[in-house]
Structure formats: C-alpha cells, structure tokens
Input
Amino acid sequence: MANSSDFYQHLKHELAGIEEAGLFKQERVLGSPQGAHIHTLGADGQRREVINLCANNYLGLSSHPQVLAAAHAALDSHGYGLSSVRFICGTQDVHKTLEARLSAFLGTEDTILYAAAFDANGGLFEPLLSEQDAIISDELNHASIIDGIRLCKAQRWRYRHNDMADLERCLQEAASAGVRHTLVFTDGVFSMDGTIAQLDVMRRLCDQYGALLGVDECHATGFVGASGRGTAQHRGVFGNVDIITGTLGKALGGASGGFTSGRKEVIALLRQRSRPYLFSNTLAPVIAGASIAVLDLLEASTALRDTLADNTRYFRSALLDAGFELPPGEHPIIPVMVGDAVLAQRMAARLLELGVYVVGFFFPVVPRGKARIRVQISAVHSRADLEFAAAAFAQAGRELGILSEGAAA
Ligand SMILES: *Cc1c(COP(=O)(O)O)cnc(C)c1O
Output
C-alpha cells in the first residue's frame, strides 16, 4: 500500500517534470505598488526600478489617488471585513450600490458580486442550465468558463476559435438534438492575442437560432468601446447581451472581485443557487467602496480609456516600425510574435536587464511555434516610458536575431 512518503515523492517527481519541460512558473517579487514603473526585489533584497508592460492595470487605477481615497474612506465607514456570506450578514449598502452602478454601466437590469470572476464563471452555468439544455463555447475560452461548464449538466458544443461558421454548425446541431435552451458563451477579449469577439455576428446568429448570448468581459470592462462599456459597445450591441461576467481585478482597480450581470431573473436565481456566492465570503467593503469611485471616474470622463487607446496605437506602430511581427488588432494586449519558446524566454530576460518587465508565453498556453512576448499597455505609461520600451525591444530583438541587424533603430 502506498504510504504518505510515496505521495510526497510523487509530488517531487511531478515538480521536477514541470521544471525539466521548462514550464516552471517563477514568481517575481515586487517591492512597490502596481504602476507604470515598479520595483522588483532581487534575492539579495536589492530594488530595481523597471517599466511594467505585463499588468492588467489598463487604466492605471490600481494606484489612482481617487481610488485609494475611496478605499480609505470605505475602510473607515464600513470596516475591514464582513466575516459572513451575503445572505447571512454580509450585505452592506456599498454592495447594493456597487451592484446597481455596475448594472447601469453595463446596460443590464441587475448584477451579483463574487469574490472573483473565476467564481462568477464557476457558479454561472450549473444553476441556470441542465441536461435538456446546451452550452456552446469558443475553444479558447478562459479556464474559469471551462471549469464552470464542467460543473453543469448541460450538453456541450465547442466551436473553433472565433469561427462564426463553426459556431453556426454548433447552433444547428444543438437545434437538431432538440435541446430546450441554448447559451452561447465567449470571452469578449481573448487574453493571449487581444482578439475581440464578434458579438454583433454572434448576436445575429443567436437570434436566428433562439439562443442566449453570454460574454466574459474581464479584459474589456472599463476601456473597450467608445465609453468603456465593453465588447458589446465596441461591436454595436450594447444592452443586447443576455449575460455578462467580469472582474474588478483588472482595469476596474485591480484589487479582486467579480460579477455577473444580466436580466433580473438570472441574477435572482444566481443569488439563490450559485454555490461560490452562497458558500464564500462577501467582497471586502473596501473593494466595494473603491469600485464605486472607479465607476464615478469612468462615467465622468473617457480620458483614461482615450489615453490608453493612444498609447496602444503609438506602441503598436513603434514595434511595427522596428520590424516586429504583430497580429493586427487594437486592444492594449499586443502579442509580439517570436515563434520559438526558448527565444521568447531569452527575449523577456534581456528586456528585464534593459529595464522593461514583460513575460514570454509559449506552449501549452499558446500553440507550439507561436511563442510570444505579451505586452499590455496602460493609460499611465508616459510617452517617454513607451519610447524607452520600444527602443529596448528593438535592441533586444537585434541582439537575439529576431530582427535583422539592419532593422531600423
Ligand atoms: C482574469 C480573467 C478571469 C478571472 O478573473 P478574476 O477576477 O481574477 O478571478 C476570468 N475570465 C477571464 C477572461 C479573465 O481574463
């Protein structure tokens, strides 16, 4: 019989395997708040300031003075924590206010808060759909959507990434199978490429087949669309998506927390049956209070998302001018294609030496041979930051042979 020392031996072996495959994820320790510039802490405790191009801090709100002030105020007025789930004694006025404000921002009837968007997706499908129903999803959807669907008994179809003809095949098959309700669910923006889902086409197809449409807006809420209302606004279907999930942990301040938004019947049933909501502690009031201030900022002005769009255009064209290969796009996620996994890691390491913090992504996170450096632009990057970073990319690209020696500086 296996004993516990065999078990720990087994784990050691698994860890060694991850390391040998070159897939071991090291966590870099920061000694500063999140921002355009951060301090990395070396093993010797030494601080180094670098430009950060790998945070989801799209609007720079992680350290925005008005957001910090609102967090301090909420801490003073509402305390540190609720020590309760929502339905026992974990609901304060700030939670109800935030839910109403998110609904207004997203053009929906009601919103339910979760501890994370991972929980919002994890607890979404099982309460709403059962064996007689169908879920149709994009093959590259986020892990939390995949896990949420696994917990649900509905029949499943998957279409090729962003392939609308293949989505229609799934809708036809589900209809032929005689399912009761069908939900099509997609990431609004796909995190490895910044691809923006074709919600306008998807809405039309869903209407044609009588299906519901749901979207995960984690990489969109606050900055995609003319006033930052998300992918639906960008694609001209604002107010016409059935279910929206999103995070407070990216553009909307970056602390943590998630939500699901939609028709009042959907949200009401989730409050009764969604397990991560029923059996997990309420969102900290500090985050609820600060998130309300975030929505105040975004509703008062589009300045931050406009600066982000300018910064994104500038950095894309600087990298293209330098000779890098970028898939076309407009999202602040900019994949700089390198191809080879080892080269992507060496590129990221060299850029860090040059003062620019980026991360290389490679198989299995992206397809084999499509390794890349994923750049994420923020509204708080100055033009000087972006010029410096573009020059570092060009230098590292030439040194590593990704760019030819004669490429423009
Ligand atoms: C980041 C992300 C999540 C998880 O959000 P958390 O609030 O951090 O749990 C879910 N879906 C997508 C598409 C994401 O990018």
